[in-house]
Amino acid sequence: MLTAKLATTDQELLQLAALSNANRSDNISAEEKATEGFVSWVYTPDILRTINAIAPSVIVMDEGALAGYAITLTSECLHAYPAAAHTYNHVLPLHFKGRALGEQRFYLMGQICVAKAWRGQGIVGALYNGHRQFYSAQFDALVTEISMANPRSLKAHQKIGFETIDRHFENGHDWAVVAWDWT
Mind listing the domains of the chain with CATH numbers? Predict the structure, then answer.
Protein backbone atom coordinates (compact mmCIF):
# COMPACT_ATOMS: atom_id res chain seq x y z
CA MET A 1 0.00 0.00 0.00
CA LEU A 2 1.41 3.38 -1.04
CA THR A 3 1.62 5.92 1.77
CA ALA A 4 2.88 9.51 1.58
CA LYS A 5 4.44 10.63 4.85
CA LEU A 6 7.27 12.64 6.35
CA ALA A 7 10.57 10.78 6.62
CA THR A 8 11.10 9.91 10.28
CA THR A 9 13.50 6.97 10.55
CA ASP A 10 17.16 6.47 9.79
CA GLN A 11 16.24 3.48 7.61
CA GLU A 12 14.04 5.73 5.44
CA LEU A 13 16.87 8.25 5.09
CA LEU A 14 19.33 5.49 4.15
CA GLN A 15 16.91 4.27 1.46
CA LEU A 16 16.54 7.87 0.26
CA ALA A 17 20.32 8.33 -0.03
CA ALA A 18 20.65 5.04 -1.93
CA LEU A 19 17.85 5.92 -4.37
CA SER A 20 19.34 9.36 -4.94
CA ASN A 21 22.80 7.93 -5.59
CA ALA A 22 21.44 5.31 -8.00
CA ASN A 23 19.74 8.00 -10.10
CA ARG A 24 22.48 10.65 -10.15
CA SER A 25 23.33 11.85 -13.64
CA ASP A 26 26.91 10.60 -13.33
CA ASN A 27 25.72 7.09 -12.37
CA ILE A 28 23.33 6.39 -15.27
CA SER A 29 23.64 6.12 -19.05
CA ALA A 30 22.85 8.95 -21.46
CA GLU A 31 19.91 6.90 -22.76
CA GLU A 32 18.47 6.43 -19.29
CA LYS A 33 18.91 10.14 -18.53
CA ALA A 34 16.96 11.02 -21.68
CA THR A 35 14.10 8.59 -21.08
CA GLU A 36 13.87 8.25 -17.30
CA GLY A 37 15.28 11.53 -15.98
CA PHE A 38 18.01 12.01 -13.40
CA VAL A 39 19.00 13.87 -10.26
CA SER A 40 21.96 16.23 -9.94
CA TRP A 41 22.69 17.03 -6.30
CA VAL A 42 24.51 14.61 -3.99
CA TYR A 43 22.96 13.86 -0.59
CA THR A 44 24.84 11.75 1.93
CA PRO A 45 23.04 10.09 4.83
CA ASP A 46 24.63 12.60 7.24
CA ILE A 47 23.41 15.57 5.20
CA LEU A 48 19.95 14.03 4.97
CA ARG A 49 19.82 13.50 8.74
CA THR A 50 20.70 17.15 9.37
CA ILE A 51 18.24 18.49 6.80
CA ASN A 52 15.49 16.16 7.95
CA ALA A 53 15.86 17.33 11.55
CA ILE A 54 15.09 20.87 10.32
CA ALA A 55 12.39 20.13 7.73
CA PRO A 56 11.46 16.50 7.08
CA SER A 57 11.31 15.34 3.49
CA VAL A 58 8.18 13.80 2.04
CA ILE A 59 8.45 10.16 1.02
CA VAL A 60 6.11 7.55 -0.40
CA MET A 61 6.54 4.11 1.12
CA ASP A 62 5.19 0.80 -0.14
CA GLU A 63 5.26 -1.89 2.55
CA GLY A 64 8.63 -0.71 3.90
CA ALA A 65 10.19 0.04 0.51
CA LEU A 66 10.85 3.59 -0.62
CA ALA A 67 8.87 4.32 -3.79
CA GLY A 68 9.95 7.97 -4.02
CA TYR A 69 11.11 11.03 -2.17
CA ALA A 70 10.95 14.82 -2.37
CA ILE A 71 13.59 16.61 -0.29
CA THR A 72 12.55 19.71 1.67
CA LEU A 73 15.09 22.56 1.70
CA THR A 74 14.03 25.57 3.73
CA SER A 75 16.40 28.52 4.15
CA GLU A 76 17.37 27.03 7.54
CA CYS A 77 18.71 23.95 5.72
CA LEU A 78 21.25 25.88 3.64
CA HIS A 79 24.00 25.65 6.27
CA ALA A 80 23.70 21.85 6.08
CA TYR A 81 23.54 21.79 2.29
CA PRO A 82 25.50 24.78 0.97
CA ALA A 83 25.20 23.53 -2.64
CA ALA A 84 21.62 24.83 -2.58
CA ALA A 85 22.59 28.34 -1.47
CA HIS A 86 23.38 29.46 -5.01
CA THR A 87 19.95 28.37 -6.25
CA TYR A 88 18.25 29.94 -3.25
CA ASN A 89 20.02 33.26 -3.81
CA HIS A 90 19.28 33.12 -7.55
CA VAL A 91 15.52 32.78 -6.99
CA LEU A 92 15.14 35.47 -4.29
CA PRO A 93 14.74 38.41 -6.76
CA LEU A 94 12.61 36.45 -9.27
CA HIS A 95 9.01 37.55 -9.49
CA PHE A 96 6.17 35.13 -8.95
CA LYS A 97 2.54 36.21 -8.68
CA GLY A 98 3.59 39.87 -8.87
CA ARG A 99 6.17 39.88 -6.06
CA ALA A 100 9.80 38.92 -5.62
CA LEU A 101 10.14 35.47 -4.08
CA GLY A 102 12.32 37.06 -1.40
CA GLU A 103 9.18 38.84 -0.19
CA GLN A 104 7.22 35.58 0.01
CA ARG A 105 7.23 32.48 2.17
CA PHE A 106 8.78 29.77 -0.01
CA TYR A 107 11.19 26.87 0.17
CA LEU A 108 13.14 24.81 -2.33
CA MET A 109 12.38 21.34 -3.52
CA GLY A 110 15.84 19.91 -2.95
CA GLN A 111 15.30 16.95 -5.23
CA ILE A 112 12.55 14.56 -6.25
CA CYS A 113 12.97 11.00 -7.45
CA VAL A 114 10.77 7.96 -8.00
CA ALA A 115 12.20 4.44 -7.92
CA LYS A 116 11.99 2.60 -11.25
CA ALA A 117 9.50 -0.01 -10.05
CA TRP A 118 6.98 2.72 -9.15
CA ARG A 119 7.35 5.11 -12.09
CA GLY A 120 4.15 5.97 -13.93
CA GLN A 121 1.98 5.23 -10.88
CA GLY A 122 1.28 8.77 -9.69
CA ILE A 123 4.08 8.92 -7.11
CA VAL A 124 5.20 12.42 -8.17
CA GLY A 125 1.68 13.71 -7.54
CA ALA A 126 1.55 11.95 -4.18
CA LEU A 127 4.89 13.45 -3.16
CA TYR A 128 3.89 16.97 -4.11
CA ASN A 129 0.44 16.63 -2.54
CA GLY A 130 2.27 15.53 0.60
CA HIS A 131 4.38 18.67 0.49
CA ARG A 132 1.30 20.80 0.12
CA GLN A 133 -0.45 18.94 2.95
CA PHE A 134 2.48 19.16 5.37
CA TYR A 135 3.88 22.61 4.51
CA SER A 136 1.25 24.90 2.94
CA ALA A 137 0.29 26.41 6.31
CA GLN A 138 3.87 27.71 6.64
CA PHE A 139 4.69 28.54 3.01
CA ASP A 140 3.07 30.27 0.04
CA ALA A 141 5.08 28.59 -2.71
CA LEU A 142 7.38 25.71 -3.52
CA VAL A 143 10.26 26.45 -5.92
CA THR A 144 12.73 24.24 -7.74
CA GLU A 145 15.28 24.36 -10.53
CA ILE A 146 15.17 21.74 -13.30
CA SER A 147 17.74 20.95 -15.96
CA MET A 148 16.32 21.56 -19.42
CA ALA A 149 18.05 18.28 -20.34
CA ASN A 150 15.49 16.52 -18.10
CA PRO A 151 12.22 16.81 -20.07
CA ARG A 152 10.55 14.08 -18.00
CA SER A 153 10.96 16.18 -14.86
CA LEU A 154 9.80 19.38 -16.56
CA LYS A 155 6.66 17.67 -17.81
CA ALA A 156 5.91 16.14 -14.40
CA HIS A 157 6.24 19.53 -12.69
CA GLN A 158 3.98 21.25 -15.23
CA LYS A 159 1.37 18.56 -14.67
CA ILE A 160 1.40 19.30 -10.91
CA GLY A 161 0.87 23.02 -11.53
CA PHE A 162 4.37 24.49 -11.41
CA GLU A 163 4.93 27.56 -13.59
CA THR A 164 8.24 28.44 -15.22
CA ILE A 165 9.41 31.79 -13.82
CA ASP A 166 12.99 31.87 -15.12
CA ARG A 167 15.33 30.21 -17.58
CA HIS A 168 19.08 30.65 -17.44
CA PHE A 169 22.34 29.14 -18.64
CA GLU A 170 24.90 28.23 -16.02
CA ASN A 171 27.94 25.96 -15.86
CA GLY A 172 27.26 24.62 -19.34
CA HIS A 173 23.61 23.75 -18.67
CA ASP A 174 20.21 25.29 -19.37
CA TRP A 175 17.97 25.52 -16.30
CA ALA A 176 14.33 26.35 -15.66
CA VAL A 177 13.17 27.73 -12.33
CA VAL A 178 9.60 26.69 -11.59
CA ALA A 179 7.24 27.67 -8.79
CA TRP A 180 3.98 26.26 -7.45
CA ASP A 181 1.52 28.70 -5.88
CA TRP A 182 -0.14 27.63 -2.63
CA THR A 183 -1.97 30.86 -1.80
Answer: 2-181 (3.40.630.30)
